[in-house]
């Protein structure tokens, strides 16, 4: 009888430890950042790294961008990311299809209107907004986004549909999805030649985060904008 009681106590104790281990708080900054250089740091915990996130199918990230720096353009393959500004100021730019805010409207009977919609359906549009503490914005899956910090900027993000999500950078020296495309495909896909695309990519020496000081902002912004537009215009 005493043995059964002891086994029962051990079982309850083990069960409590298991539950508490799954519900314990975690520190996003306790691990090394997944992306980092002198311009910023990107910390992230995914369902693979933490069982608490598996059932929810979400990831959590924390981004620090230094004043005058830029989180380079990137997009998530599956995840929808909800971002809140924890500290600092800046702005972000997101690129999407020009007509996606008109989806769900009534069908037009006018053939000219249908033709005009067909011509513009692959055009893209830039959406811009200022960022201040307490602001919240949403990054849809498949939409390139870049964030610039006018002061030290801290962002907290929650990614829905985290399983099998891939974050693809469209600029920078490392992990640049465009640089992985073979030359014949670049020639067919992008305006200009593959050499011009490669030259643009080679000019971007930093990865993940880059300098965006005022004297370089206009040129860099234009390069990034043209780069994003040519990419999205190909689909």
From TrEMBL:
Keyword Lipoprotein listed: no
GO cellular component, one term: aleurone grain
Disordered as annotated region, ranges: 1-35, 94-124
Compositionally skewed regions (Acidic residues) per UniProt: 107-117
Segments of skewed composition (Low complexity): 10-23
Domain Cupin type-1 residues, every copy: 26-198
CDD domains linked to this entry: cupin_7S_vicilin-like_C
Alphabetical keyword list: Vacuole
Gene3D superfamilies: Jelly Rolls
Pfam family, one: Cupin_1
Classification via SUPFAM superfamilies: RmlC-like cupins
Organism domain of life: Eukaryota
Subcellular compartments: Vacuole, Aleurone grain
Presence of keyword Amino-acid biosynthesis: no
Function: Seed storage protein.
Record-stated family: Belongs to the 7S seed storage protein family.
Protein name: Cupin type-1 domain-containing protein
């Amino acid at each position: 009888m005493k043995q059964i009681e002891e086994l029962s106590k051990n079982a309850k104790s083990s069960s409590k430890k298991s539950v508490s281990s799954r519900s314990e708080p975690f520190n996003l900054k306790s691990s090394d950042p997944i992306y980092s250089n002198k311009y910023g740091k990107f910390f992230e915990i995914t369902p693979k790294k933490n069982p608490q996130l598996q059932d929810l199918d979400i990831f959590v990230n924390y981004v620090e961008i230094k004043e005058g720096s830029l989180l380079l353009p990137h997009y998530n393959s599956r995840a929808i990311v909800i971002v809140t500004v924890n500290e600092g100021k800046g702005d972000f730019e997101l690129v999407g299809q020009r007509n996606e805010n008109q989806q769900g409207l009534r069908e037009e009977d006018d053939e000219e209107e249908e033709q005009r919609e067909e011509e513009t359906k692959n055009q893209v549009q830039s959406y811009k907004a200022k960022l201040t503490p307490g602001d919240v914005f949403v990054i849809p899956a498949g939409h390139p986004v870049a964030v610039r910090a006018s002061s030290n900027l801290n962002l907290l993000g929650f990614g829905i549909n985290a399983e099998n999500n891939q974050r693809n950078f469209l600029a920078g020296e490392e992990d640049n999805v465009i640089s992985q495309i073979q030359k014949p495909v670049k020639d067919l896909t992008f305006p200009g030649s593959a050499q011009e695309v490669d030259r643009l990519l080679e000019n971007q020496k930093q990865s993940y985060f880059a300098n965006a000081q005022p004297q370089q902002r206009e040129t860099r912004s234009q390069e990034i904008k043209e780069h994003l537009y040519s990419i999205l215009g190909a689909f």
